Amino acid sequence: MDNFFGIGTNSSFYDKRRHINLIYQEFVHFKLLVHDNRSLAMQVKQVLATDLNTRFNAFQSMFLNNYENNFLYYLKQRYQMPDDDYTRIIAGESFKNPEFKSPAGYNQEQDWRLVIQMIYATILTGHELQPYTQHMIESFIYPFAQGMGIGVQPSSPRIIGESIQSCLNKGMRNFEDLPAIEDFTLSRLGFK
Description:
Blueprint: H1 15-34, H2 37-48, H3 52-63, H4 66-78, H5 83-90, H6 93-96, H7 108-125, H8 130-147, H9 156-169, H10 178-188
Helix pairs in contact: 1-4, 1-5, 1-7, 1-8, 3-5, 7-8, 7-9, 7-10, 9-10
């Protein structure tokens, strides 16, 4: 069996794939919160039986809005992920083996940047779905971040959310502003 995400390995070779997949799985999880899980699960099962390009197009439209598509593509470019890897992720590679992991070779700062990106993505994708946004942070992102062993505190999601919102209020709304938002947020967390 193809181990596309390197599950069970401690190899940093899979870090880009794991990083992008975590954000993608966050968007998928968000859709599952908002929509009927049974019908969506049946659709996923049907789509998984098709070829790679059909899966890519179907899952892209099924799980991602324009913002989410653009954000994932920005991350693909930022982390210089090969097109084939990106296509396989969006085409539902992780649906075949639903276990997903954080990057194995990241240092503490890189792990925090991933957590900040996850909260950033949730805030922007779900602004009209505020109760779901809070639920995503509490039920998906926060527990995942705690499991990374980076010293997440109960106040960390609030500090990250406030820091991101402060940057957005200052007009930092392009994806290219994200590294600066991450730096500001890290400083508010006392990391830098």
